[in-house]
Amino acid sequence: MIAIILVNWNGYRDTIECLESLLRQNAGDFVALVIDNGSEDDSVDNLLAWGAEVDPPRPDGPPWDRLPIARVRPARMIRRRQHEGIADVAAGSIVIVETGANHGFAGANNIGMEMARRDPRVAHFWLLNNDTAVEPECADRLLAASVAEPRVAIVGARLMFHHSPDMVQGVGARFNPWTISAEAIGLGASPTTLPTLSEIERSISYVMGASMFLPVATYDAIGPMEEAYFLYFEELDWALRLARAGAGRQTVALDAVVYHKEGGSIGTSMLKRSSEKSLFYMNRNLVLYTRKLGVFFAAIAVVRILFRIPVYFIRYDASAAKSVGRALVAALSGRKGP
């Protein structure tokens, strides 16, 4: 069985749309866990109220003009606390997990994976951002890619922009430690102009975190996500640990399509300036991650961040400059939050 794990933080509307697409999945052998990170917008009550509706309105707009009209299963909702298990939960159910606090992206996903791995039926995890909608064959195609050969450890999807569903957001990403920069593979392309799978596998550094599919055996081999990051760089850290452990390889299921709003919950975007919160964690975590690559690369990251601060001031964006400055201080001092 597949355990699909969504993290919700003050974003029940996005989560409902994602769940509506999961209720249209052709795969039947899954359970969805919505890990609520201490939301302050009555997310849990709103999600349960949606689940109780007999015939809720179908989402509209892109990409719903290409997704099925009707559900293939009802919304069977179950409410749980994080210390409780799911072994008694029927396949196809949606489990709303109340954590009572904001554990960050990594911490919430770890809660979900630990809950799911105690269920002997669960063989695979699918970590899926809540601001997504997925095509009905997505779970089946990710599973097929995962079991295609034993060395496959983590499988990514073809991410498409939610607002522009014919444009690729990425099919994996490259990280260059010398320039301290990341690049989404296929960004802005159409599905017909993407590199081949073999070309992608040769250049991929990490599977993009909006959709990560892995067998439980991968989790057992490399351990849970690093919670020190809170937001961002968790997938790079996992990829690094995977490579160092020699525990398998990463690939992408190009026929598994996920439409992603990219950062709607906390305000990060490829197309506009990120929120102060995003800027803080992206810059702080850049230093935390590059430390694992070595002191030299961490020093390059620090210098690059130092140059960003005056650039934001020149652009009359003092709030961004201050967020980046706080991030650098936090990274060097060991402070966790903004």
UniProtKB/TrEMBL annotation:
Molecular-function annotations in GO: glycosyltransferase activity
Gene3D superfamilies assigned to the protein according to its UniProt record, in alphabetical order: Spore Coat Polysaccharide Biosynthesis Protein SpsA, Chain A
UniProt keywords, alphabetically: Glycosyltransferase, Membrane, Transferase, Transmembrane, Transmembrane helix
SUPFAM superfamilies hit by this protein: Nucleotide-diphospho-sugar transferases
Domain of life: Bacteria
Keyword check for Transferase: yes
InterPro entries: Glyco_trans_2-like (IPR001173), Nucleotide-diphossugar_trans (IPR029044)
Ranges where the Glycosyltransferase 2-like domain occurs: 92-159
Protein's name in the database: Glycosyltransferase 2-like domain-containing protein
